[in-house]
Amino acid sequence: MIEILTSHAFNTIQDLGRTGARRFGVSTSGAMDPVALAAGNAILGNDAGAASIEVQTFPFRLRFHADVAFAVTGADYDATLAARTIPPWWCARARAGDILAIGSPKRGARVYLTFEGGIDLPVVLGSRSTHVRAGFGGLEGRALREGDMVPVSRSTREAGGRFDFGVEPANVAIAGSSPSEDGVLHVRVMRAGEYDLFSTSVQELFWSTRWKISFQSDRGGYRLAGPKLTLAAPAEMRSHGVVAGVVQVPPAGEPIVQMSDANTAGGYPKIAAVIQADLWRLGQARPGSFIVFSEVDYREAVAAMTPVDDYIARLRATSELYRSL
Amino acid sequence: MVCRIYEAVVSINHPIAPFVGVIEKGLKISLIGTLAMLIEAPGDFDMVQQGRVWALADALSTWPNVQEAVVGVTNVMLVFDEPPEEISALSASIVELWHRLPSRKADGKVIEIPVIYGGEHGFDLPAVATRAGLSEREVIRIHSEGEYTVCAVASSPGFGYLHGLDPRIQMPRKSVPSLNMRAGSVTIGGMQTGIAALSSPNGWNAIGWAAVTMFDSRSDQPSLMAPGDRVKFRIDRIEL
């Protein structure tokens, strides 16, 4: 059991998301940075889909009520366990009574706390992710708050494996993941269905602009501030399914990137879609920071996942080795 | 007159669109990243076209690598487990299937919804009546005598897009949404009517309220409505 001591807002239980229920109008939810989540689970030897605590407001504190191994991945934070510093992308074994405290990240937006054995809350429609808007999944379908008790599964492995090591963070290990020196995150996209409806000059504007992630951005989507991307004539669109990463342009011309909690349906012209290999990086981008888009084709987008998959596989293999030493 | 028989059919949104074939009317197929594909039926909205989309979604949802087929309004989005190997071949198979499949009728279950029209939760009824130039009772009569079809379930859990609203009582969505509309509110948005599945901000016009559970996350079939179902609103009570 884990007791939440400090949690201000918007911190929730998330796994890799709820797939297969879009046709019931249910958005996927799930970790905004699925690579950090997968890394935490790989380090601990958990199933890739084990649920975590996604922390996006700080400080965050919890108390362990039993001995349990855990990992902290995602944003670059300052963390302490029983007053001892826990470096970023680290795993450790907590003793009953230990307090884990996480301060504001120096880089990135979201920290993932994974626990050996995974969080033991009911699976709802195939996932433990919290669907806040509809009020199900996670812990009572809501954000965590002080006093909450979060159950952790008993690990099937024997206790005593080695748990005090760190791994290379995803943004370091996977080439091209970090914001460039000017602090601008480069995000690769593919063109989407209505790209050609925009004039050449508007298309050029889309590629050349340094977009600011507005402060009206959250797990549902990122609004981008910059020049207006307007259509010569309004496009009549019928409501259709969308997935995270799609860049839609409402009539006012301000693009919106749909993220984990996005509605299942959209009806605005789609200019582009962020590729899977970069969506997790966007999940770590903060409001107020800048992004630029660059174009890749389908084959490049598929190939871009190889270094991500390889990284997770490598973490799993080396962590396995480490724990058994 | 330019005959558009040979219009390019499958426009994959790829810098160099792979050319797939020549079909009489363009089904638009586009990718949303590497894991989703949107298939849009051509032409105006009608229930025959929507029925073809249901049939297509039913068939495609059984294909390998298709995680789910999400029905929209005259379109269907496929979500894949893995990026498909051959987009062009896949698109061609979908186009071929589209031309072969008969339209599915609205052959789902009939859902009867008892509505308390007007009153505390039907706060937009006077505005709808004013716009229609009808009495509130007339609006209620027209709405409750209609026969509606669930085109798609989307937007929020269990929310059905209902087709069949009488044009006389259509009413545009509000520019400023009502801040906290209660789940179960019976609403009109443009040419559609619906039942709010969640209590949340909502830009549709509330004309009544029904004590129905549109969505139950504990059930394997969590949504009361499914595409192809028919809906009838019955007057439970009128509060004017």
How does this model look, in words?
By secondary structure, chain A is α+β, with helices and mostly antiparallel strands. Chain A has two domains: 2-167, no CATH class; 184-305, Beta Barrel (Cyclophilin), CATH 2.40.100. Chain A has six helices and 21 strands. Chain A has helices at residues 34-44, 170-173, 200-208, 276-282, 298-303, 305-324; strands at residues 2-6, 12-14, 52-55, 60-64, 68-76, 79-81, 84-86, 90-94, 99-102, 107-115, 149-150, 164-166, 184-191, 211-213, 221-225, 240-241, 246-248, 256-258, 265-266, 270-274, 290-295. In chain A, helix 1 (34-44) packs parallel to helix 6 (305-324). The model of chain A has no long low-confidence stretch (mean pLDDT 94). Chain B is an alpha+beta fold and 240 residues long. Chain B has two domains: 28-100, 2-Layer Sandwich (Gyrase A, domain 2); 110-239, Beta Barrel (Cyclophilin), CATH 2.40.100. Chain B has helices at 47-60, 87-100, 125-132, 136-145, and strands at residues 28-31, 36-40, 66-71, 75-80, 110-118, 148-153, 160-163, 178-181, 185-189, 192-195, 200-202, 205-209, 230-239. A seven-stranded mixed beta sheet of chain B has the order 7-6-13-5-12-9-10. A four-stranded antiparallel beta sheet of chain B has the order 1-2-4-3, with helices on one face. A two-stranded antiparallel sheet of chain B has the order 8-11. Chain B starts with 27 loop residues before the first strand and ends with a strand. The relative contact order of chain B is 0.16. Mean pLDDT of chain B is 89; it is low at 1-24. Classes of the chains: A alpha+beta (325), B alpha+beta (240). The interface between A and B is large, with 43 and 48 residues.
